[in-house]
Amino acid sequence: MVTVYGAGAIGGTTGAALARAGHEVLLVDSYAPHVEAINAGGLTVDRDGAWTTIRVRAVAPDGLGDNLELVFLAVKSHHTVDALREITPRLAPGGTIVSLQNGLSEELIAQAIGAGRTVGCLVNWAADWVAPGRILHGGHGAFVLGELDGRITPRVRELARLLSAVEETPVTDNIWGYKWAKLIYGALLFGTAVVDAHVYEVVERSADVQAALVGIVGEGMAASDKAGVRLEAFDEFDPTWYRAALAGDLSAGAHAMTAIATHYRAHTKTKTGIWRDLAVRRRKTEVDGQLGVLIRKGEAFGVAMPLMRKLSELIRDLEDGRREMAWENLDPLVALAQGSSR
Questions:
Q1: Tally of structural domains, the chain
Q2: What CATH number corresponds to the domain at position 40?
Q3: Which of 209, 204, 148, 153 is nearest to 174 (CA)?
Q4: Which of 201, 194, 235 lies closest to 216 in space, CA to CA?
Q5: Rounded to an integer, what distance in angstroms lies between the CA atom of residue 57 and that of residue 15?
Q6: Are 213 and 311 in the same domain?
Q7: In terms of residue numbers, what domain contains 214?
Q8: Cα–Cα distance for residue pair 326/285, rounded to 1 Å
């Protein structure tokens, strides 16, 4: 049996695809109306314009059984520790947890159960939780799997075959390069969420806004360089574009922003999950599990992170209702980026 812990956008889409492929799947979610809706009428996913309802069993965390062999963890990064408290004592001796999360949650999972029982995954396809029992697949994207130590093992190949029911899933010997790259790119996406606008509108706003977004990525790349991580390119993100832009190549920066705009214009989901947490679901974002992690790691290496620190403040202000989404929220980031370039 496959257990998907966190049956929201990513976990729900994954669980539904695996169940549709004939696998026995158990969904675990803490939101009771979602669990009740799934058990009553199945999980409905809108994918590529077609609504499909899959019958699959769902339980609350306290309904989770023992001897779990395979768990796909899909909770928000700031809920990882709480989820591991529930999962770890129920994991079979040889059980594996695969993180389908943004951030570097694999570090926390490995601390809890050991690196040898932890598998990393890059998720860059999109989905949104719409309502209890209903999920919207927002667009296709990279789905990459890897052992934390870089080995290409039979286990990771078998997991990749299993997950191919969701998206094509290649195996990598550098999963940390993908995870850090998505984390750094995710910091840029936090920057687009301070405005009530489509991602493509933000990245095309002005040269000054683009420079601030490139500067955010630059801080993250400086941290990854210090950490000795070789960043990987995927879909609309390639670190070489940003390195060139930071070195003064204006065309490279414009190309990086155009790639993001093109990617989001082709998707049903044109705003980030961060925006959705703030504007629709009115709940805490993953600012601590993503920006906070990058800031702590960067500053531990002696890397100044002023843009990310200011962006974190802006997101927390939005979470707490101290400011509203507006284009003016980008002004402090633009000012910092201009100051650092002088």
A1: 2
A2: 3.40.50.720
A3: 148
A4: 194
A5: 10
A6: yes
A7: 177-341
A8: 18
Sign of the C-alpha dihedral computed for residues 234, 235, 237 and 239 taken in this order? positive
What's the CA angle centered on 216, arms 293 and 220, to 5 degrees?
45
Give the end of a domain, one of 141, 173, 205. 173
Place of tokens 């920066």: 253
CB atoms within 10 A of CB 239: 22
- pLDDT, tens digit only, all 342 positions of the chain: 999 999 999 999 999 999 999 999 999 999 999 999 999 999 999 987 788 999 999 999 999 999 999 999 999 999 999 999 999 999 999 999 999 999 999 999 999 999 999 999 999 999 999 999 999 998 899 999 999 999 999 999 999 999 999 999 999 999 999 999 999 999 999 999 999 999 999 999 999 999 999 999 999 999 999 999 999 999 999 999 999 999 999 999 999 999 999 999 999 889 999 999 999 988 999 999 999 999 999 999 999 999 999 999 999 999 999 999 999 999 999 999 998 665
Final residue of a structural domain among 142, 157, 173:
173
- The pTM score is 0.96
Structure tokens at 1: 């049996």
Instruction: Decide: 70 and 98 in contact? Cβ < 8 Å.
Output: yes
Main-chain phi, psi angles of 275, to 5 degrees? -55, -45
Q: Which residues of 7-26 are buried (b: 16+ CB within 10 A; e: fewer)?
A: bbbbbbbbbbbbbbeeeebb
User: 203 and 151, same structural domain?
Assistant: no
Q: Which residues of 49-84 are buried (b: 16+ CB within 10 A; e: fewer)?
A: eeeeebebbbbebeebeeebebbbbbbbbbbbeebb
